[in-house]
Sequence to fold (477 residues):
Amino acid sequence: MSDTLSFAASAAVFGTASSAPARPPADPEITAVLPRQPRTVSDTGLNKRLLAALLLKTLHATGRAPLPLLAGKLRLSVSVLREVLNAMTAEQQVEVAWSGDSDIDLQYQLTAIGERVALERLAECAYVGPAPVTLAAYHAMVERQSLRPLTPRRASAHGASACPIRHLAPAELAAALAEDGLDPALRELLGAALQAQRPLLLHGPSGAGKTTLARKLARLLPGSVAVPYAILIGERIVSFHDPLRHPTPLPLGRQQEERRSCDARWTVCQRPLVHVGAELDASMLTLHIDAVSGIHRAPLQLQANNGILVLDDLGRGKMPPAELLAAWLGMLDGAPARLAAGAHGESMPFDAMLVLVTNQAPASVFDAAFLRRIAYRIGLGALAEPAYRSLLRRAGRLHGIDCDEAVIDHLITRLHRAASTPLLACYPHELIGRVLDFAGFAGTEPRLTIAALEQAWSSMCTSGSAPASCHVAGMEP
Fold:
């Protein structure tokens, strides 16, 4: 078997204990974006001491381990690990515990010296896992995968090497948002904001669908992107990949073979969606050490690169908007910003579309100067009656419930209008859900009758019958 056995091949033979297995990309062009597999330590951009520390900590956690398993855990080729392990063997930190017939059929374990050094390295840095990529390599990848329109500077810097991007067509956007009841003019505003990747403000009453729309925008961005499992920033290994914020694209099995020649320190995901609400505080926007694991974590804005960052519930959180957004002024001008972070002041790339969400009047949250720098502002409110009816019918279809027009008429004329309750996007799914809840409790077939509808409506309100103001607790779709 080849001395440069790739991570994918070694994982196929031996398996790995990593929590984030290699995944094939969803776009044919992604293998052209991923770097080639490093064959030497020099190719990785890292030094031997860092790689030796990762190997010591990994062997400390696993005990005796086959060489391909170590390659899988560090996401490096066997040839790179052999170069490091040979030096560690000479320093009597590791030893070959068993060897087989092939030149990679080896198992390594720590010596007594290695155990002591491993504990020292763990005290310096608790991170154990895939080897990091350099900040310079990450910055180059972010630039390459950017959705922002190419400026002359970026075009000359990257030329044909920039990732080919197919932007969302108007018909595709209309189809994707067809069930949201948005006016064509609002869809055009959203399309323009997505095309330009400029800041967007969504405002309106609770229940108008702001958060649902903000989260949906991320799924409308084209293409997959490469993200690293970890980044070396200064002297710190920063854990980066988050499966919740970097979801896996649909796999294409034929791409797996092509990935075997790619740098396995990178994985492929959908364009990121980082969504944070009132819990946001200043520590989330800087490099910080996780109190439980002791591992450095990437700030939210870094994890959102090449995707969307949603700051929700502005004006209701523990961090004043003026303080929160003071550092974002450059980004609001539409140019990629470089945000300083870390004790040594390293600058990091920022290339995400910023979506601000509030249910308060924009002028009460932002000052006039700040509002002028938000490129697109969209107010969401009550739906038009046809759109509301369509949304209710769609909610019914999703749960296998027929929506009789007479029942919908009753909802609109006798419940909404009588209670002066606007036709907000939150109500259809919530009402259908409560009809299902009551039917399930009663052990009956769920049906959208007037009686069932009124029971669901009353359960949403602050008293036994629909008052002038009906509130759905905790709802903000």
In short: The first strand starts at residue 65 and ends at 66. The two ends are 54 Å apart (CA to CA). Residues 385-460 form one domain.
